[in-house]
Structure formats: C-alpha cells, structure tokens
Recover the amino acids of this structure.
C-alpha cells in the first residue's frame, strides 16, 4: 500500500509518495508543494494526504499469470536479438500499435485469454477504420497482426504458462488476390526520361530493367559487379528498420531475402555504361570534396555526391514525390518490380524465367502473382488453337502457340 511523507528540499516542502510499481519494486514520486519551509509543515502534510488520496497505484503484474498486454511487452523484449531486425520491427509495430492498445484496457490475463477473445479481436479489426485511408485493414494486414500474437502465445506454451495456443483455431479473413498497378511500356520510358537527372534516376533505371527489390538495389556493391564477365550478383541487402528507441536505422546484411534471391544476372549495355560512368563520377567527387567525402560507404554503387549511401526510405519518398509531381499513374516503387515481370510475360518470356530473374523462392509465387497476365494474353491464341482443331488444322496452330510461349513451365 502506498504511503506519503513530506520532506524539505531547497526552500520548499515536497510530498513523497512511496509505492510499488507493476513489477513490485518500490518507487518514490516527489512533488513540490510550493510552500516555504518555515511555518508550513502542517499545510504541506495536508497537501500530502490529499495527493495520496488521489494517487492511483499501478496494478501489480502476476508473472505466473500476467495480463496479456504485460506478457506481450515481455515477449517482445525476449525476442529482441533472437530474430532478424526486420522481423522484430514487424513484431514491435504490431504489438505497440495494435495489440497492446486493444488488449490493455480489457485487463485480460494470459491464462484467461480464450479463442472467443481472439476471434472477437480479429472480427472487430475487420470492421474497424485502422486501414489506410480510414478503411478496414486488408486481410494481409490482419494476418500480420495474427502472426505476432500467435508467435507470442506459442512462446507462452513453450514456457508452460498456458496449456495451448488459443489462436490456433481462429478464422482469419481470406487473402485477396492482389492485382498490382503497373506502368505501360510508354509510361516506364517516360518515368525514366523524367528522372534521368535526379539523384535517384540511376536506381530507377536499374530497377526498370531488373525489377529488383528496394533492399537489393540499395545494397548493390561494386565488388558484386563483374565487368570482365559482364554480370552482377545480388548478394547483399540494405534495409531501413525501426530500432528499439523508435528511430529508423539502416541494417546492412550479407544475405538476401531467401536463397533464390541470391542470383547473378547479365549487365545490359546501357546499365554497364551507366555503372562505368557512375564509378568515374564517384572518383571525381572523392577528389573534389576531399575530407568531406564519405569513404565509409564507398563499397556501394548508389551513393550521393558526398559518398553517402542512398537511404531506402529516402528513395521511396523521393520517387513518390516525383511520380506525383509529373502526374504519372499511382505505381509504387515496389510495383516497378511488378511492371518488369508483367512486361516480360507480355513479351512471351516464360514465367519460369521470370521467377529466376526476380529471385522468387518458387514457381508458385510467380504464378500466383502473374497468372492473370499470362492468361489474358494467351486467350486469343487458345481460341485460335481450338478453332483450328475443329477445322482439322490443329498442328500448325499448336506449333505456332509453342513458338510464341516458349517451353512449358510445368508438365
């Protein structure tokens, strides 16, 4: 139970409330009364009693059965350093921005948390305005929140805090098939022409050819470019994550998103010429700015005129601002990657080859994203095949279709 006393400090009386915090540790809350020390002790004691009466003691955490919101905080502390920073960043965002604000006011203890509680949470999310533009969150967003909550409760099961995971049997919204916005060929050329003299212009040009992820283009290093054999390798990434202090941090990793993302691709003549020009320009900038030039990022291809690595967040902001400035379609930076894949498929590159080019883990990923492009483009040819079959002229049609579409991806 909290107690109160008065203490002289400097020229005034202070009230001191002693109490136990959530973890059972004694704390002191000191406040000035504004009363001079001489002749005012009783008045100070009266103020102290009034402050004690209005003081709300923290609810003690029972670590054998904590509130769910308290447990989530502890779980997040446990996960730090045990998972990739990008994964931790996602967990932290879900816990602090969604899970704790929802569950903390409900005062549900970990062992009392039921399937019904979990289902109510997801159902309320589906009807909420927490999504972009005040709309309900997309199914993929809700599933991201679920991933954090489910993993936290899995840890509770492993620690014998609960017998089973209540979220194992929840009904989640079905993922919707996402049709991404893409540029047309003419729009992609226009974009690159407009951004040619911008600092992010070379990155957009590179992305427009290879459809790389943001982390892959920002992480491209000179040692990964083999001018002799006219190839480059995606083997290093640079990502922006939110650190424990809430500030954005740059994380550099000598690995890619997955094994298939580690890939070697040919240099086109235009990209090779661009890289050679950039290398010369960086050498000239290093000489021009002397000690003001940042040699710490000299291993990276995409740096500014002072040698500083192009920040992934800056790249996205600058691209978005310029896209809107020039009135181009609402295609995100990541959707340039989808543009590349879509244009390749429309030009009869097989989806298997597109999978390798983009660095997708498996063929199904590519197929799930781009089946609609492939099927829309091939419908006329399929109609021609069936017409020729009925007319008794099927062999030429089948051969023509095979030439147009390349080898079959799946048996």
């Amino acid at each position: 139970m909290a107690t109160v006393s008065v203490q002289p400090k400097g020229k005034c009386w202070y009230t001191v409330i002693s109490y136990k915090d959530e973890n059972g540790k004694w704390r002191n809350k000191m406040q000035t009364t504004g009363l001079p020390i001489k002749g005012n002790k009783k008045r100070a004691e009266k103020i102290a009693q009034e402050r004690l009466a209005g003081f709300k003691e923290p609810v003690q955490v029972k670590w054998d059965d904590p509130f769910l919101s308290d447990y989530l905080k502890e779980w997040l502390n446990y996960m730090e350093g045990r998972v990739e920073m990008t994964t931790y960043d996602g967990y932290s965002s879900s816990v602090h921005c969604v899970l704790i604000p929802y569950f903390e006011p409900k005062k549900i203890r970990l062992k009392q948390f039921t399937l019904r509680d979990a289902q109510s949470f997801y159902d309320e999310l589906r009807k909420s305005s927490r999504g972009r533009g005040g709309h309900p969150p997309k199914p993929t967003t809700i599933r991201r929140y679920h991933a954090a909550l489910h993993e936290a409760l899995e840890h509770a099961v492993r620690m014998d805090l609960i017998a089973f995971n209540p979220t194992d049997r929840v009904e989640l919204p079905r993922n919707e098939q996402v049709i991404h916005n893409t540029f047309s060929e003419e729009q992609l050329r226009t974009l690159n022409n407009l951004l040619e003299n911008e600092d992010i212009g070379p990155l957009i040009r590179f992305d427009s050819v290879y459809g790389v992820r943001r982390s892959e283009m920002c992480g491209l290093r000179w040692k990964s470019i083999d001018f002799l054999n006219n190839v480059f390798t995606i083997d290093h990434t640079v990502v922006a994550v939110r650190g424990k202090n809430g500030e954005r941090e740059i994380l550099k990793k000598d690995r890619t998103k997955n094994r298939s993302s580690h890939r070697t691709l040919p240099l086109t003549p235009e990209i090779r010429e661009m890289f050679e020009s950039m290398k010369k320009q960086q050498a000239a900038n290093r000489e021009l700015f002397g000690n003001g030039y940042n040699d710490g990022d000299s291993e990276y291809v995409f740096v500014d005129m002072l040698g500083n690595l192009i920040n992934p967040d800056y790249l996205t902001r600058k691209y978005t601002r310029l896209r809107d400035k020039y009135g181009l379609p609402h295609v995100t930076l990541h959707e340039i990657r989808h543009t590349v894949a879509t244009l390749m498929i429309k030009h009869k590159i097989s989806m298997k080859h597109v999978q390798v080019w983009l660095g997708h883990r498996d063929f199904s990923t590519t197929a799930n994203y781009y089946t609609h492009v492939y099927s829309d483009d091939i419908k006329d040819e399929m109609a021609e095949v069936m017409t020729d079959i009925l007319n008794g002229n099927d062999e030429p049609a089948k051969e023509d279709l095979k030439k147009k579409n390349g080898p079959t991806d799946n048996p």
Q: What stands out?
A: Strands lie at 3-9, 12-20, 26-36, 225-226, 231-234, 237-242, 248-253, 263-266.
